[in-house]
Amino acid sequence: MYNIELAELVWGKRPNSALSDSVFRRWTQGFVLSQSESTALEQFEGGPCAVIAPVQAYLLKNFLFKSDKPNWRDCADEEHKNLFCLTLSEILETARLNNTTPFCLVMLAKEKSSEEHASISENQPESSQGTEEEQLSALAAEELGSERFHALIQKHTYATAIELKEAIVDQYSTWKNRFGVLLFLYSVILTKGIANIRNEIEDTAEPLIDPVYGHGSQSLINLLLTGYAVLNVWDGDRECSGMKLHGIRNQSTVGFLTLMESLRYCKVGAFLKSPKFPVWILGSETHLTVFFAKEMSLVAPESPWEQARRVFQTYDPEDNGFVPDTMLEDVMKALDLVSDPEYVNIMKNKLDPEGLGIILLGTFLQEFFPEQESAIPDSFTVYHYNGLKQSNHSEKVMYVEGTAVVMGFEDPMVRTDDTPIKRCLQTKWPYIELMWNTDRSPSLN
């Protein structure tokens, strides 16, 4: 029965219970490594980036900060296996509701009917049917449609994280085969619990995967990133017209930025913008990619100067570098500065001696936060990952390396480009400049 509930949660209710074969087929791929980059996962068609990109982000975090090897791009098979299995385990542990609920792994059925054995026999030499792993691989190679696939999946439960990790390692070949991405997604969902996910999704009629276009919802992305299938990207819960709308509950391990924020469709909160590690999923209108660096100062706690600049800029959404003097009291209150009317008036006269009616960001920071600056270095190396071959130079899935400079508000603006990736990153670093080591800027699509 859970197979039907699971399919409806992921794909939505269909009038004839039939999922579009083309959409389902786009999601039937394993976690496959790029031929050109030993730590990069390849995405074959549009859609499964909602699972592949979060897994890639966590995987990069582990390669960059948990591996002992200095060259994180040069990875032996055994090391990749260990860190990949650690990554899947970590995401499942994030999704687990509490220490008393079991972990779940979803696998294709091990018991096969005589008809299934006959089907395997027709396509495989007799000598290759010996082991259970080989039989599962053969089954995965069949042209299974959605209905048949959902009839064959089985749930396996594990009480402890140690048991879970052992099982993930044992099933390593399963994650790489044709249904690996879906089997892992279903494992996350059943570990979290179908009912729990439905409680977190605001529109329970909205499936996790769009049944027409095949892209993952924000709820699905948030589930993989944070363990909570909430729809929104702001911090905490909000009240709207008497309804409680759920947001992100705490600081995420890896972050999320979106081009939609630069277009004013949403506002990503600090829990996703400032994660524990300098790895961010970047969202465009249709695709997810990953931006990352080794520089841990990028995710260091804000200095008072950085906090003041960020708060000031929330009152300056057009990035003019100033706010009307009527907003000075609000800015000072937001920063817990003395804000009684008499003192605010004194500050208005001091910060705007010519009576122009505006308060400049630079003048404000120099007055209240002198001799402080950002902890971020002047320049640092950055990388971008896009799992789609056709979106990469020479159609090879490889990391694009570049140099980023986060400039101060007072520095002259040197416009290196005005690309979607830069506009996306400016939602976190308004004065960032990027210089890539390639002829063209990396693609978000």
UniProtKB/TrEMBL annotation:
One of its GO terms (molecular function) is K48-linked deubiquitinase activity. Gene3D superfamilies: EF-hand. Keywords: Apoptosis, Hydrolase, Nucleus, Protease, Thiol protease, Ubl conjugation pathway. It comes from the Eukaryota. Its main location: nucleus. Its EC number is 3.4.19.12. GO terms for cellular component: nucleus. It is found in: Nucleus. The keyword Nucleus applies. It catalyses: Thiol-dependent hydrolysis of ester, thioester, amide, peptide and isopeptide bonds formed by the C-terminal Gly of ubiquitin (a 76-residue protein attached to proteins as an intracellular targeting signal). GO terms for biological process: apoptotic process; protein K48-linked deubiquitination; proteolysis. Residues 7-352 form the Deubiquitinating enzyme MINDY-3/4 conserved domain. Residues 116-136 are annotated as: Disordered. Residues 120-130 have a biased composition (Polar residues). Pfam families: MINDY-3_4_CD. Hydrolase that can remove 'Lys-48'-linked conjugated ubiquitin from proteins. Belongs to the MINDY deubiquitinase family. FAM188 subfamily. This is Ubiquitin carboxyl-terminal hydrolase MINDY. It comes from Scyliorhinus torazame.
